[in-house]
Amino acid sequence: MTVAFEKELDRLAHDVLYAPEQDMWVRLGADGRVRVGATHLVSAHGQFMLFTPRPAGSTIERDRSMGVMETGKTAVAIHAPLSCRIIEANSSAVDNIHLIITDPYGAGWLFSVEPTALEQERAALMDVTAYREWLLPRLAEKLVPPIDDFYTEDFDIDPNRGY
Q: Minimal CA–CA distance to 49: which of 118, 2, 96?
């Protein structure tokens, strides 16, 4: 394992459960509520400019969209790591999307939710040890930087004919 990979793995929070396919984490609260956020690996999608959550009260099935984060070139759906009802979106993250990148496991959380099928879906969530093992063979792919310059000599667009 490279030093860079080890450094990325060391950034994972130990007090959350991970939904590996969604690159999301959940922090179970004593009151039955769950805080949901995106892992630090989501920032590999590009420089996020906008976080648009679905409204409070929305009922979301696992792996369905809870909202969208947008870069200058793409929109990334935020997939629910578990079935839930949205209690609130983090207004601080809506107002300052950089919190999601700079403090993804703290102030950059995305949603507070009430799970609707936690007992059935909890087995799909991983602790940090299991997530590290799952992530290791996939980490290089997740860390590929976004393509910022689409122009190459082999790629020419004629505005009258398209590609």
A: 96
Q: Work out whether strand 84-89 and strand 75-79 pair parallel, antiparallel, or are unpaired.
A: unpaired
pLDDT along the chain (163 residues), means of 10: 77 95 94 95 76 97 95 87 98 93 94 97 96 85 55 46 48
From edge to edge, which strands make up the β-sheet containing 34-38? 17-19, 24-28, 34-38, 111-115, 84-89, 59-60
57: its two tokens: 């009260």
Could you tell me the sign of the dihedral formed by the alpha carbons of 71, 92, 82, 128, in that order? positive
Buried b / exposed e over 30-50, threshold 16 CB at 10 Å, is: eeeebbbbbbbbbbebbebee
Give the contacts of 61 (CB within 8 A, at least 6 positions apart).
80, 83
Amino acid 156 reads D
Contacts with 117 (C-beta within 8 Å, 6 or more apart), sequence order: 62, 82, 83
Dmax of the chain from CA atoms?
Answer: 60
Query: CA–CA separation, 128 vs 61, rounded Å?
Result: 24
